[in-house]
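Let us work through a complete example step by step.
Step 1: write down the sequence.
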Amino acid sequence: MTTTFFFVRHAAHDRVGTILCGRMQGVSLGPLGRSQAESVSARLADENISVVLTSPLDRARETAEPIGAKIGCQVEICEAINEIEFGEWSGQSFDTLAGDPRWNTWNQSRSTSRPPGGETMLEVQTRVVSALEQLRRDHPGGSLAVVSHGDVIKSALLYYLGMPIDAYSRFDIDPASISTVAVSDWGSKVIRLNESAAA
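Step 2: predict the structure and record it as tokens.
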């Protein structure tokens, strides 16, 4: 049986594009993000979703909660879909990081580099896909919303597309976007990528 995953990147907060938040606490959605989260919930309302999973971080939970409320489903925290652990880079501005040669190495070869004190993208992919495969076994034929973070979602999509980790820059996962993947014993198919739910 085919299980459908709706991967939702958390909606916008006021540090998007300027600060590498990583696993910082207290990063909440702004007015735009709250509006985006409502649009995502409206878009997913008719998809027969029975499970809503979210990263434990505030910005993901605040995106997931309107989805759960719209479809009448309790939101479940899933540690396996948490943001990448960026170690000492967490909370730094992208302008500051641009001067760090380790940051440039990370972006040139995600398959062979690691943030200082953090985890590799291959480690991220392993934890995320392992959780998704267990969810597929637990919910055969079901539809699940998975609210997470841009590169975490990319790691899952790259796996199901059969592409290497270093292809992460070949597509975008925007805030409040939805990417839909069907997974079964026969394999997987990406149905929609980086879909905007904005009206």
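Step 3: interpret the result. The first helix runs from residue 31 to 44.
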